[in-house]
Amino acid sequence: MADLSFDNPLFKQFAFYSGVVIVKTMSMSVLTALNRIRKSVYANPEDCAIGKAMDKECKPTLSDPTVERIRRCHLNDLENVIPFFLIGLLYVSSGPDPATALMYFRIFTGCRLLHTVCYMCQVPQPSRALMFGGGLFATMRMAVDVISKTC
Amino acid sequence: MADLSFDNPLFKQFAFYSGVVIVKTMSMSVLTALNRIRKSVYANPEDCAIGKAMDKECKPTLSDPTVERIRRCHLNDLENVIPFFLIGLLYVSSGPDPATALMYFRIFTGCRLLHTVCYMCQVPQPSRALMFGGGLFATMRMAVDVISKTC
Amino acid sequence: MADLSFDNPLFKQFAFYSGVVIVKTMSMSVLTALNRIRKSVYANPEDCAIGKAMDKECKPTLSDPTVERIRRCHLNDLENVIPFFLIGLLYVSSGPDPATALMYFRIFTGCRLLHTVCYMCQVPQPSRALMFGGGLFATMRMAVDVISKTC
Predict the structure, then answer these.
(1) Is residue A1 situated within a structural domain?
(2) Which residues of chain B have pLDDT under 50?
(3) Residue C121: which pLDDT band, with cuts at 50, 70 and 90?
(4) Average pLDDT, chain C
(5) Could A69 and B44 be called an inter-chain contact, meaning their C-beta atoms sit closer than 8 Å?
(6) How many angstroms from the chain centroid is the CA of residue C91?
(7) DSSP helix/strand/coil, C42
């Protein structure tokens, strides 16, 4: 019942929720690229060729506010979504209560989707801080379970 | 014997050591947040509301030495702990000698915990470089095993 | 047939290709360290001791073009290789068509190796953009499969 395969319904649910947050995370790459092209702000000199092909003036810069905001959101995703996945994988294989596990997956996924909305739309604080905290809570709670079952 | 489940004693040991280093890595997020609040240095303009609520002057900045040091340590963790986990998972499923595997897990975990101590307390070099190297050695050694068993 | 163990030939192939791209990613750490020492550009004041031991003048800096280029390449690897691994793991356990799966692993690995060549040798664009896109396509295609099989 606690194996990492699609025969295990909990693993299948984990695959769904973690699939969603990983796709969300990767979509920040696309958003960064689109904004670099739109605003012609590139990190590398050779990238200016893309702008020139579009007849735009090129400003190689690492300080455009929009692009840097997207990149901070992306890095925050990496810092949170990847630990969630890794801990979640160990947690699923530890044979937890399925209803509790599903609740953690849903809390994490909901919080991280709303975290991105807060970051991108500059929703007043402490909205983003709370969403960050909710996601961290879910991962940490599972991590405590994994460590206490293995030590 | 080489399956990824808590029935496999080596997987259980892997879950313990990797759980510890992932929690260590995530705790850098909390440390960053605490220092941002303590010193009122935020990356985003809207975050200043947190400082204002506490009646502090806000300086949105990306160059506070304490915060940037914690962030460099966090990024270094991501660059090392995540590859350790991913390679370690493949390594455990490749059916290695359990005693050797346990030794690599312990070298990695010990080195990364000391790496953080060296980074945060500014212990003179080459302490941090050696701890970084020890962790990298453990992961690379497992990676060589995985690749040589699969190609 | 869809279990995460070396008895599953597809998992073994996944282990090989993901092992290669993870080793590639970790090697950026070594490349960064070598270039920091060669050019005596360190991020932390205490690291200058390494340069002094080699009788070089120390410039703690975060803006050396060579080092920052390697770091951007490293971060881009983390942003792409880790999601590939996580999604790939879910994908393998979903029991996909082995030939299709192997093709995605090869597209991803080939694109990411060439992406590094393009980044390090400053090959004119859109070479690097295409290699980035090819890798992202492979991961996203697998992610769509995982999510559609689980929701």
Answers:
(1) no
(2) none
(3) very high
(4) 90
(5) yes
(6) 19
(7) strand
The rounded distance, in Å, linking the Cα atoms of B85 and B90 is 9
- Is there a domain that residue C2 lies in? no
Closest CA in chain C for residue B145: C19
Instruction: Classify residue B72: in a domain, yes or no.
Output: yes
Contact criterion met (CB below 8 Å) for A106 and A17: yes
DSSP string, B38-93: HHT--SSGGGHHHHHHTT------S--HHHHHHHHHHHHHHHHHHHHHHHHHHHHH
Q: Is residue C1 domain-resident?
A: no
Other chains touching C, judged by 3 or more CB pairs under 8 Å: A, B
Chain B CB contacts of A93 below 8 Å: 4-6, 11, 15
Measure the CA angle with vertex C40, ends C38 and C44; round to 5°: 130
Using the beta-carbon criterion (under 8 Å), do B26 and A139 form an inter-chain contact? Answer: yes
Cβ contact A6–C126 (<8 Å): no
- Reported confidence tier of residue C1, pLDDT bands at 50, 70, 90: low
Inter-chain contacts counted by CB atoms under 8 A, chains A and C: 83
Interface ipTM: 0.91
**What are the structure tokens assigned to B123, written together?**
């212990």
The whole-model pTM stands at 0.93
Q: Contact A5/C123, CB-based, under 8 Å? A: no
CB contact (8 A) between residue B86 and residue C5: no
CATH number, domain with residue B100: 1.20.120.550
Confidence of residue C47 (pLDDT cuts 50, 70, 90): confident
Containing A118, the helix (H) or strand (E) segment is helix A98-120
Return residues 39-78 of C near A (CB < 8 Å): 69, 72, 78
